[in-house]
Write a structure and sequence with these properties.
- The protein is an alpha+beta fold.
- The chain is built from three helices and two strands.
- Strands 1-2 form a two-stranded parallel sheet.
- The termini are far apart.
Length: 81
């Protein structure tokens, strides 16, 4: 069921985020997935957010100045990543 086993099915660019307050395993999984997507030649951006955890990063999607909000706007051509 792991997403890393379905990279060939990706059809859109990805932005992956993890915070430095995540567990080491969450950080490793995100880095490994980003590396695998990049190795497949598909577009991926990895963002490491200092002093954030899994739940805090979700909240940044609603803020155009937050890590997730800036990345989403940049993907739409409406801001900078």
């Amino acid at each position: 069921m792991s997403t890393i086993r379905h990279i060939a099915r990706l059809r859109a660019p990805l932005v992956l985020l993890y915070g430095t307050n995540e567990t080491p395993e969450f950080q490793r999984q995100t880095r490994d997935f980003a590396a695998a997507v990049k190795a497949s030649g598909k577009p991926v951006q990895l963002i490491v957010a200092p002093n954030n955890n899994h739940y805090e990063l979700q909240e940044t999607m609603a803020n155009p100045y937050g890590w997730g909000g800036r990345a989403a706007l940049a993907m739409m051509g409406l801001g900078k990543a």
